[in-house]
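Quick one: structure tokens for this chain, please?
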Amino acid sequence: MKHTRQAQTEAPSATLLNMVPGIFLFLMFAVFPLFVGIYADGQFPFIHFDDGFYNIRHDKFYFFVTMALLAVVAEVMILLTKSSPEAKNRKLGELFTPLSFTDWSAVALVVSCTLSTLFSPYPALAFWGEINEGGISAGRNNGLFLILIYVLLYFVLTRFFRYSEALFTALAVSCSLVYLLTVLNGYYLDPMNMLEQFKTSQPGVYMEFFSTIGNKNMLASFICVTLPASVVMAVLTETLRRRAVYLLASGLGMMAMIIGDSDSAMLGTAVFIAVFLVVFARSVTRLKRFFLTLSVMLASVGLLRLFSAAMNDNYKELGAIPKALLFSSYVYILLAVCAMITALLYFADGKKPGVKLPKAVPVVLGALFGIAALSGLGIFLWFSVIDKETELGEMEKLLRMNDAWGTHRGIMWLRSFDIFAAANPWQKLFGTGPDTFFFAFEPYFGQLQEYGNSSTDAAHNEYINYLITIGIAGLGSYLAFVGGALVRGFRSAKNNPAVLCCAAAAVAYLAQATVNIALPISTPLFIVFVSLCEAFARNAATKNM
């Protein structure tokens, strides 16, 4: 019965139109995370990776752009040439009617970003997302060109995607390799020989770059957009072998998050855990698997501690929170609590399988998490706005907003609000152009030198970055696009719970984006998951018609 139920959840029949998104998603899930620049020079071992980090952002960018454009062109050609039975029976206009709220938001995002680009003081940078002229290098490839590709891909995935769990299993396997490489790199082990040449020439790269992803910021957002997907699939899958794969990915992901030394990854993961504890709260079956996965993640911290001891604790630099997680005995207490809860839930589910808890349970949990979040925000605002005199010691870095806050993210955020306040009405509405933060922030470069930076091309908060570069209209359209897909995805979870995997990735990414940057390494995966939330919703609506 389990196999029959799973088969009914997946696509009833694959057509040529469905195969293209399937191939694209397999490449994005299985190949994209591991893809780096390689070269062959005839010397053993013949294929070399030691140039991989030089152009890693561009390698990932061109890989994604190429695969996305091929997918879009292939679908258009199939529709125009009627090469698929489904294409013969469907008019092109039917694919866009009716347009959902998310569809309209995607269109609004393109329109607002196009206007932002056309009237930008830096049109070339705004369109391509990167320029290198006169010794000035600016942008991170997030221009209008990439935004257009995101939206085109969104319409392809939402119209032709059909669910297959094998895609998410492939993602877990690929990410497990990335996580494992991250841990090894964190202890100065470099099996792919990608870091050796940077040891003396560029020590910053040697210390802060990991696996096949890039620096700590890139790795943090990658973990946030992939680890939650594995955790949720460990809860949802009905296949024991696949659950083992997802649990392995979850454990290795926890290790990578600690060794990657990024507070933003921990923020995103913590928000995901809180949100999905509420989501799974009514089902004892899902709760027991969720706590099992959390137990595996906490147990992996203990394994990492043993590995660290075997390596004489010779690891790269760790911040206060990752170091505390690695060495604190409280982790084992938390593990014992999670393991006990897991055992009790398994016992209860065994006694009465499929039992549902009262609706009050998720409501109470959600209220408690909401109160905790609001309390934390209130404390932060109190010490940042009202009480600026009380000595906070080490906690000042966390509880009081000033220029030095958050490894000097504070100065970027505070000056960004000054830039927005001084902008003319048009720029308040449409910004200075996509990915033009470098020039918008240029007047404040001198102030950054106090913190060891001579320039920046990102606010290190995606929402503030969008406010400056694409304005209120662009930021509003973006939030409507992502929010619309998430809401519709959650609502369709009764038809296919696998949509929760995509929603989990989006939730964690959105949380870490408050202190991180958008890059064509993890952001394309985020857009894919957002698109899949809408795709699941459209498929559910079609079945219910």
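The longest strand covers residues 131-133.
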